[in-house]
Amino acid sequence: MNNKQKKTLKAIFENPVKSNIKWSDIESLLNECGAKISEGNGSRVRISLNGEYAVFHRPHPSPDTDKGAVKSIRRFLDQAGVTP
Fold first, then answer.
1. Is 72 helix (H, G, I), strand (E, B) or coil?
2. What CATH code would you report for 3-79?
């Protein structure tokens, strides 16, 4: 895991929840962790990691992920055994 991915992982688990994490950085982190990412309908993204499955919406038009999505990603990563 490179330094940018480590910073992204740390930012996801910080309190208070951040809302300025770029979705592309989150996808890069997930790829590095071995997640399988597939496109769904519209802006949906299906993610499978360590036996856990989730569907997220890729943010648009802004590249930044909102607080609710960051909380969901945090929960997903925690359940998949990925923590900082």
1. helix
2. 3.30.920.30
In this structure, the number of other CB atoms found within 10 A of the CB of residue 12 comes to 24
pLDDT digits (tens, 9 = 90+) for 12-71: 999 999 988 999 999 999 999 999 999 989 999 999 999 999 999 999 898 999 999 999
CA angle 8, 10, 14 (to 5 degrees): 115
Q: Which residues pair with 36 in a beta bridge?
A: 48
Distance CA 61, CA 4 (A): 23
Whole-model pTM: value is 0.91
8 A C-beta contact, residue 70 and residue 17:
yes
